[in-house]
What does this fold into?
Amino acid sequence: MKKNSLIYVAGHRGMVGSAIVRSLTRQGFTNLVVRSHKELDLTNQNEVNKFFADSRPEYVFLAAAHVGGILANSSNPAMFMYQNSLIEFNVITAAANFGATKLEFLGSSCIYPRDCPQPIKEEYLLTGPLEKTNEAYALAKIAGLKYCKYLNESNRLNCISVMPTNLYGINDNYDPINSHVVPGLLRRFHEAKVNKLESVKCWGDGSPLREFMFSEDLGDLCVYLMQHYDASDPINAGTGEEISIYDLAVQIAQTVGYNGKIEWDHSKPNGTPRKLLDLTKLKEMGWTDFVPLSRGLQLAYEDFLRKNV
It folds into this structure.
């Protein structure tokens, strides 16, 4: 990419999209185009085609998605699959049809089988059943990355697919019902501190192991991969470090300053037992610098306070 290349970031108001915009801006890219949902409905094929025909972006970061935690995904799987499939196919097809130079598709580590070997290599895709609690979202993401692969291999569009691990950070969704684990716990422990609650109840038993990546790290990595990665196969994006949900909850409580008791609701689902990505491809490219979880949680909590206090 040149500094004046026309770059479209789809989903620029979300956590990942906004991180990409900030990274591009820091690095001196000056010709960015963004549209809010009110300005451009990515589930509407006619609107998407008109936007691409009029704007003709050279590079496209597809970070737009309909996302949510375990409860949201399991409550309305049909909507998650439908909305995300429409967004992906509309944007990717328009990029191919209207002369984009390259598109980067943001997937998710939930595309991998629930019980596949650890750490998870890219080639483990479609080797076993998915985690039921987010199966619909995962299927939509799998369809998107396969579509990118087919377009790349047929020379219709240079498409790459990035599969991030669990994310948290600046501009996260702190909704008490639809948030992911880190922002959800940040809010829950903060409110418990403010309301002087003696205990906080968390889902499951705390045993699942998860890998977490700070949003700004992913934003920088996405810009790097757009410039240096061209293979049709997906590439994992993570930190290579994992923590149990139990230890995560303890660390978030400490970050927030909550000193009460943490209880666990064993009637609620744990989700996938373990999900650690293999980062061999990424390390071979020389990418190893990540914000430590302790620092990232502090920055995320400060972001929560700015938006909610």
Remarks:
- The two ends are 39 Å apart (CA to CA).
